[in-house]
Amino acid sequence: MTEPARQTEHRGQDDLLTAGLGLDGLRSMAPPAFADAAHPTAAELRRRAIWSSWRGIADLSPGGGYGSLYGSAASVPGREYSALARLPGARQPHRVLVQVPDAFDQGRRCVVVAPSSGSRGIYGAIAVAGPWALPKGCAVAYTDKGTGSDYVDLDAGIGVREDGTPGGLGEAGDLAFAPEVPAGARGVAFKHAHSQDNPEADWGLHVKQAAEFALVALERAFPQAAPFTFDNTRIIAAGISNGGGAVLRAAELDGDWLDAVVAGEPNVHVEGHGGRPLYDFGTEAALLMPCALLHLPAETLPQPPLRAQVEPLWQARCANAAAAGLVEGGDAAAQARSAYERMRASGWTDAALQAGALSVGFDLWRAVVATYASAYGRYGIGEHPCGFAFAAQNPDFSPRAATAAERSVWWSDASGIPPGNGVGLVDPKLAPPDFTLPGLQCLRGLYTGQGAEAQRVREGIAATRASMPRAGLPVLVVHGTDDGLIPPAFTSAPYVAAARAAGRTDVRYWQVRNGEHFDAFLALPAYGARYAPMLPYIHAALDRVSAYLDGQGALPADALIEARGRGAGTVEAAQLPMPH
């Protein structure tokens, strides 16, 4: 059983939910400052990590409704207990952290286990679980599920300690990620790509280990009320995106340790029923979506002005995809139609394509699949089968050593998948005229091709396939119909269909009209006008399953929720209807 390595107190000008920033501080465009930019303290790093995690998940824009129609940023005093936990056989640990409010209800013991979304760090799910659980007197257990922002500067030989401060790779200590570093290795390593553990295969176990750690932390917090056990403490697992996939993987584990699950827009892969793994539809999107979007009228995309800037790049992708035999047609219009028809035939909807435009604009697909290829194949530093690497970069994209100031914000600010925060994606296959196409073709070939490397990656993907939840476990899946990153047609809908076919009658499904994947993008006017936030529906789902466990209502029925964006004004309650 993992024991807490650190205990910290958070009261007065600090708190559990916002690190003392409050809603105004979270909304600030400027991050919390460090007294010494190159040498931030653990407390400064924590505050900035919480600020960054909130802004990466929630729509905090003044017109978005957070704090007025849903959610809370009220100060919650309490304690944090943290440690580095390790699964049996794992090469690297994962972070676990439990927030225990001073107002923890010992009479109605409750823990919400919240794995980070995406590949984010330990506070990556704070906006998902914290505002719902902490004000109710529940503890929250977080895990980075073996991913996270514990970057290692290979040039300097510096990693990240358990408290977020830098530590040398050769020093004895509590580094959160200490990889095997080949001689002469340069650049940046990070846990999701380079742990050699394929963490996604064990996300359910990461969630359970975080729940176990929560019971230990509660016994440290309230020794007079011990023991805290799965029999006397309610455990609800809640997560979105990759965190949603993680809680569904936890749902399939044996035992009665888990009382309910809320999975928002989950990255989950089941066999059959139209299910597709992220790596499959992600590499397809990386290759074809730039071209396919040209077939859609400009006014149907959420940010038409963006199209004028990127259209030449999309046209180049069409031409080069045709030359590579990926699409057909003698001109850009015919090639775009071919790419569009291929994506529609493989299950993409117009709504998913339209919402995916921003992922194309940010080159997000390439970043995701380059990292996941390394993880699925359990490749170490310098072993990527397509040659991808990660480093600070010069303006011409050539690698360089990172500065101390750049390195100091990786743990607090980074998303867990470069590029971003001063770390770039190094692609050795870059070549004109379509610079990223050769690397993307290599990545796609690891799923569709032959050979030992492709087999190795596909075996890693197969290890992430989900099974059905434990019989009788309440599971509520919530997904936006317009999700362009994790389309429900490939993930939630097949999972629910497979669960029904297996007789799991306690699996319910809420589909949210006009819901896309990134609430944080709703701060962009064109996205906020068009799309509804998902976070209020995650909190509502937690309300409903909690009431059900209390015997105060039935398990929610399936629902198609007619939500809508806020248009040119501010969001109103009528735009966010809740299921009856």
Which terms would index this structure?
globular; alpha/beta; 3-stranded antiparallel sheet; 10-stranded mixed sheet; 580 residues
Your description of this structure?
With 580 residues, this protein is of the alpha/beta class. Helices cover 34% and strands 14% of the residues. The model has no long low-confidence stretch (mean pLDDT 96).
Question: End-to-end distance, in Å?
Answer: 42 Å
Arithmetic mean of pLDDT: 96
State the total count of DSSP E strands. Answer: 17
Helix content: 25-40%
Tally of alpha and pi helices: 19
Q: Cα-atom Rg, whole angstroms?
A: 23 Å
Shape: globular
Task: Provide the structure class.
Answer: alpha/beta
Proportion of residues in β-strands? 5-15%
Strand arrangement, major sheet: 1-2-3-5-4-10-11-15-16-17
List low-confidence stretches.
Answer: none
Profile the largest sheet. 10 strands, mixed
Summarize the structure.
34% of the residues lie in helices and 14% in strands. By secondary structure, the chain is α/β, with parallel strands linked by helices. It is globular.
Layout of secondary structure:
Layout: E1 6-10, H1 22-27, H2 42-57, E2 78-85, E3 94-101, E4 110-115, H3 126-133, E5 139-143, E6 152-153, E7 158-160, E8 166-168, E9 188-189, H4 191-194, H5 203-221, E10 234-240, H6 242-251, E11 260-264, H7 278-292, H8 304-323, H9 332-345, H10 350-355, H11 357-361, H12 364-376, E12 389-393, E13 399-400, H13 404-408, H14 410-413, E14 424-426, H15 437-448, H16 452-462, E15 475-480, H17 492-501, E16 507-512, H18 525-530, H19 535-549, E17 559-561
Parallel strand pairs: 4-5, 4-10, 10-11, 11-15, 15-16, 16-17
Antiparallel strand pairs: 1-2, 2-3, 3-5, 6-9, 7-8, 12-13, 12-14
Helix pairs in contact: 3-19, 5-6, 7-8, 7-9, 7-12, 7-15, 8-9, 12-16, 15-16
